[in-house]
């Protein structure tokens, strides 16, 4: 009997198609990364708080330990891995500011790549077009661009969240995939303690999936759980041995998990939702429910929901340009690609041209993502970029060159001024001061996030040489009389300084001085009586 003749593809055609797909993915990723770097490089924003991390990293390399003021062990940062990475690059010869911005940019590049991979995992390899557009919206996003070079751990944190989810999303819940997720979660938790909550969610999801599939369950998860618990225990023991605390000092300054925090967090999310792309992005992300049978989709939906709940629980953020929103933008835009792909499939079944509607809906997110809502978050960003941080940088450098070494300053804010002056600094808000951070505050969570604690009498008891009040106040002429300074027209500034200026020791121990900065401007300060010398003061 003769053999049955069949017409098959030529040998190697499958490999050719696979290679073409890889090349196509590389081309798309190259375009996405180029767009991201272009927009990120145009952003010249550096957060004032970033200089706190830079100062810790510099002190570590200089042999002063992980301290803000040498000899004072207070963990005034919440991004340990990020600070250590900056210190490593600084030890290799890179300036800490450049190092911090480089790490943020590099993490942003990897974030784009991992996000693209996750869209393909969640929507299928045939959804390359939708993956490219969805990740383009992430790559072009104005807030992502701002924080990729803003000097803090924001994009590194966002990247590690996706890296923690990727093995489980791509391979399901196996011993190997959960182990790799656990390793990524170790780095995530070392970057920010919110990583504990993210890992707990992934562990619960893994347990649920294992039980549903009647696999080995907990036994397969034990190696990963063991690695994570060991890493968390070692980090906590080191923190307690070095700083005497189980959590960073910033936790006491900002967190409370009260109803006030929750309401402020909800308002924070509502304000962000005014950006034009948020509503359509949420709709498209919601349509990912059409692909709920794909194992990655429920995991990404749960992750997005948890990140939103974390923002609410922490009461939002006091820094500009929606810093706390950036980590949840990645799963949001990933899910928009999944939802648009699923919608296109349903519309195509009705009438092929209708799938263009899903494509068009997703495409509109890209230009809209470039826009910033002109709200209070934008005004803070604009003010810090154009005026505040450049001014505080100049003042810090001026103080380094014009006041005696070892002069103790007390002020809010503390970032650029402390970094460029290199002088001992009392943080009147408590980020780097454990006493102020732990001081009880009525209605904590109802005020400006991260700017609610103070203790003027305590600051005066430490007898700083110079008080920089009024948000570090600079003008073109000396003020006529101390009654005009500090300028407490800003309620938040007055709230954090009123207990200091109302203390009798303030009037008896300090005198007003206007320090000429040499560029036609005057820095207005209060100087401890008997502290000398100060150049060319008037007051």
Number of domains: 2
Oligomeric form of this entry? Answer: single chain
**Helical stretch tally:** 23
Poorly predicted runs of 5 or more residues: 1-10
Give the structure's gist in a few sentences.
The chain is 61% helix and 5% strand.
What would your notes on this structure say?
With about 550 residues, the chain is mainly alpha-helical. It folds into 2 domains: about 15-370, no CATH class; about 380-530, no CATH class. About 60% of the residues lie in helices and about 5% in strands. The protein contains 23 helices and 6 strands. It has helices spanning about 15-40, 50-60, 80-90, 95-125, 130-140, 140-150, 155-170, 175-190, 195-210, 220-245, 250-255, 260-270, 280-285, 295-315, 325-350, 355-365, 365-370, 375-400, 415-420, 435, 455-460, 490-500, 505-510; strands at about 410, 425, 465-470, 475, 510-515, 520-530. Strands 1, 2, 3, 4, 5 and 6 form a 6-stranded mixed sheet that branches. Strand 5 (about 510-515) and strand 6 form a beta hairpin. Helix 7 packs across helix 15 (about 325-350) and helix 13 (about 280-285) packs across helix 15. The radius of gyration is 26 Å and the shape is elongated.
């Amino acid at each position: 009997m003769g053999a049955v003749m069949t017409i098959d593809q030529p040998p190697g055609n499958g490999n050719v198609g696979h290679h073409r797909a890889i090349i196509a993915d590389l081309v798309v990723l190259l375009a996405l990364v180029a767009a991201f770097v272009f927009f990120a490089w145009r952003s010249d924003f550096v957060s004032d708080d970033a200089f706190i991390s830079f100062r810790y990293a510099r002190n570590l390399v200089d042999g002063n330990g992980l301290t803000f003021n040498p000899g004072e062990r207070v963990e005034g940062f919440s991004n340990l891995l990020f600070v250590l990475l900056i210190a490593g690059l600084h030890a290799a010869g890179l300036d800490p500011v450049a190092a911090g911005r480089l790490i943020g940019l590099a993490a942003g590049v990897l974030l784009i790549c991992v996000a693209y991979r996750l869209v393909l995992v969640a929507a299928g390899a045939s959804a390359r077009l939708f993956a490219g557009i969805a990740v383009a919206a992430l790559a072009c996003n104005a807030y992502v661009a701002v924080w990729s070079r803003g000097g803090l751990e924001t994009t590194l944190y966002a990247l590690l969240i996706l890296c923690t989810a990727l093995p489980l999303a791509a391979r399901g819940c196996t011993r190997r995939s959960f182990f790799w997720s656990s390793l990524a979660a170790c780095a995530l938790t070392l970057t920010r303690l919110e990583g504990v909550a993210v890992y707990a969610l992934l562990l619960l999801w893994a347990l649920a999936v294992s039980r549903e599939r009647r696999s080995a369950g907990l036994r397969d998860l034990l190696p990963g759980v063991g690695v994570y618990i060991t890493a968390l225990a070692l980090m906590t023991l080191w923190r307690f041995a070095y700083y005497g605390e189980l959590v960073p000092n910033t936790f006491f300054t900002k967190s409370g998990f009260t109803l006030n925090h929750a309401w402020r967090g909800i308002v924070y999310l509502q304000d962000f939702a005014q950006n034009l792309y948020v509503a359509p992005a949420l709709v498209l992300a919601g349509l990912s429910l059409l692909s709920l049978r794909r194992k990655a989709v429920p995991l990404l939906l749960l992750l997005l929901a948890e990140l939103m709940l974390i923002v609410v629980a922490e009461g939002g953020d006091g820094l500009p340009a929606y810093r706390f929103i950036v980590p949840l933008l990645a799963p949001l835009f990933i899910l928009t690609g999944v939802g648009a792909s699923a919608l296109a499939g349903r519309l195509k079944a009705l009438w092929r041209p209708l799938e263009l509607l899903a494509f068009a809906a997703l495409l509109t997110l890209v230009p809209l993502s470039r826009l910033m809502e002109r709200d209070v978050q934008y005004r803070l960003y604009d003010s810090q970029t154009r005026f505040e941080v450049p001014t505080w940088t100049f003042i810090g450098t001026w103080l380094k060159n014009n006041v005696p070494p070892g002069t103790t300053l007390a002020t809010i804010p503390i970032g650029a001024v402390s970094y460029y002056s290199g002088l001992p600094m009392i943080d009147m808000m408590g980020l780097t001061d454990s006493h102020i951070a732990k001081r009880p505050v009525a209605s904590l969570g109802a005020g400006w996030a991260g700017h609610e604690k103070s203790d003027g009498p305590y600051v005066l008891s430490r007898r700083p040489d110079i008080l920089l009040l009024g948000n570090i106040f600079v003008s073109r002429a000396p003020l006529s009389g101390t009654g005009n300074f500090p300028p407490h027209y800003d309620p938040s500034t007055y709230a954090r300084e009123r207990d200091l200026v109302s203390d009798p020791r303030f009037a008896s121990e300090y005198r007003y001085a206007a320090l000429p900065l040499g560029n036609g401007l005057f820095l207005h300060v209060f100087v401890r009586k008997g502290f000398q010398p100060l150049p060319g003061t008037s007051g």
